[in-house]
Amino acid sequence: MGVRIIGTGSYAPEKILTNQDLERMVETSDEWIRTRTGIRERRISDKNTAASDLALEAARRALDSAGVDPSQLSILSVASVTPDHTFPSTSCILQHKLGAPVTCACYDVQAACSGLLYSLQIAVSMLKCRKNARYALILGAEKLSSIVDWTDRSTCVLFGDAASALLLENDGSDEPDMLLSCILGADGSHSSKLCVPAGGSAMPASRETVEGRLHFIRMGGQEVFRLAVNAMTGASRTALQEAGLTVDQIRWIIPHQANKRIMDAVASRLGAQSEQVFVNVDRYGNTSSASIGICLDEIVRGGLVRKGDSLLLTAFGAGMTWGAAVIRW
Hints:
- The longest helix is centred in the C-terminal third of the chain and has 23 residues, at 221-243.
- The chain has helices at 19-23, 30-37, 51-66, 90-98, 115-129, 207-211, 221-243, 260-270, 281-284, 291-301, and strands at 3-11, 16-18, 41-43, 73-79, 105-109, 135-142, 162-170, 179-186, 194-195, 218-219, 252-255, 310-317, 321-328.
- The chain folds into two domains: 3-170, Thiolase/Chalcone synthase (Peroxisomal Thiolase, Chain A, domain 1); 179-328, Thiolase/Chalcone synthase (Peroxisomal Thiolase, Chain A, domain 1, 3-Layer(aba) Sandwich), CATH 3.40.47.10.
- The chain has ten helices and 13 strands.
- By secondary structure, the protein is an alpha/beta fold.
């Protein structure tokens, strides 16, 4: 049974927050941000927009691109670290907004920036094991502006809001799967290095946690950089090996758009050419689980990929989690 991506979609809010805007908010500079991250601007949602609203726009675009109606969906997955609520799941909220049927299995994935790769592996497996399941819609949707400390110059310059969607089809044919390999991993011993400390059962919301600004992103930058480069490089090498490919046979390397320095380091260790690496972090910043899907959508809509091309996707996120996948278009 062949499972393939047949539709892509992405959405980012209209409001643009530039580095120059941030210069007026915290002690930073456009040069400092660009040289360390490669980011020039990011998109920010208004206060009344939820992650499910961003996801809805991306979902509609992915479905429209393939000519598939929401009523045909069998599986709906949302990866996010900024869900609408602790519960119910954002996927259930999106199901209602989108008009997907009650027979559609809905679930959220929390693997931070690696979320879309985790979702991809799960959705491919579910399409194969669920009887009569044909279409799965997987999304990464993030309103990171809601958990950013806008007084912390080390983190507020990094993140943006956006959503992306991939529509998968199991057409029941004898065609091989698009997913040639998928490597996933995690190491919880580093969980405190990138986290939102409060708000869960370990540290419930209180006056003290709010006053201590513990509901915002905390990150140990240098250690996260080292872990990200090592994990993404290792997972990518294994994914290539399992797919029976070398890096020079890859048309596009699509890394999670965390920052340019991480992407450059991973590409260098893999022996890739800079022309193989797709980069849009300069326009969106770090959009966590949405970033890889946005890249794929821009590649597809820009006519930059052809049938038979091989793509390497790789990500690293809080947890720590990581992954790499090789797909054949």
